[in-house]
């Protein structure tokens, strides 16, 4: 069984430094041999050890790229990933915090992250639990039906599932989830709602058993590596979060200005 890490970069919202950081951190936090692929329309500035593949043309309008990560469906395209290969997909603004070898060992089908409980879940205990696509794994060649169902009728897929992560979960041959605690949310687990502006230096580091820290919405990780005000609504902070800034510098990349 071969191991492959895949990320995607489209447009110019994220620069090549995000891909390089994820690549270098993956080399540090994986003991098993692996290849690293970035699917992008612009390979300028990427490290030489990164394999670049073009983004498959899904025939999608701009709204599919902005409202959810529908281009992620292209990782399931037939022939893109060799058989006998286990894939770990990560968003390029992911922060790796621990060894990821076990992320490849989650059994057959697609492994995703259970969405962390929201207020709606406590008010409605019968609301079905959903999954996230910031990080997921699957076997090459075994989940091509996800791509084929989507490409047959993208509009129907979006109307029914709204965003790509629910479509992936709803059409996987088998759905597994990563163990609780392996994948955490910066906002949910390290920076809960509060009044006022918190000092970035007071943000705790992830627990030792965490492997991956996901960022969704605001703030973005690069903002946390800078001085200044960051965040939104009841999650405002000021100043760099030490472990986030150290993460960038550890792998030889100066955080770009947000």
What does this structure look like?
Helix 5 packs across helix 6. The strands form three sheets. The protein has a seven-stranded mixed β-sheet, with helices on both faces. A three-stranded mixed β-sheet has the order 5-11-9. Strands 10-13-12 form a three-stranded mixed β-sheet, with no helix packed on it. By secondary structure, the protein is an alpha/beta fold. The protein has nine helices and 13 strands. The radius of gyration is 18 Å and the shape is globular. The longest helix is centred in the first third of the chain and has 14 residues, at 16-29. The chain has helices at residues 16-29, 62-66, 119-123, 144-152, 154-161, 164-171, 186-190, 221-224, 242-250; strands at residues 2-9, 35-40, 51-53, 85-90, 95-96, 110-114, 131-139, 175-177, 183-185, 197-199, 212-214, 229-232, 235-238.
User: What quaternary form is this?
Assistant: single chain
Number of helices: 9
Radius of gyration: 18 Å
Measured between the Cα atoms of the first and last residue, the distance is: 39 Å
Percent strand equals 15-25%
Taken in chain order, the helices and strands follow as EHEEHEEEHEHHHEEHEEHEEH
Number of extended strands = 13
Q: Give the overall silhouette.
A: globular
Q: Main sheet: which strands, in order across?
A: 3-2-1-4-7-6-8
Question: What is the helix fraction of residues, given as a range?
Answer: 25-40%
Largest sheet: 7 strands, mixed
Report the average pLDDT across residues: 90
Structural classification: alpha/beta
Q: Can you tell me the residue ranges where pLDDT is under 50 for at least 5 consecutive residues?
A: none
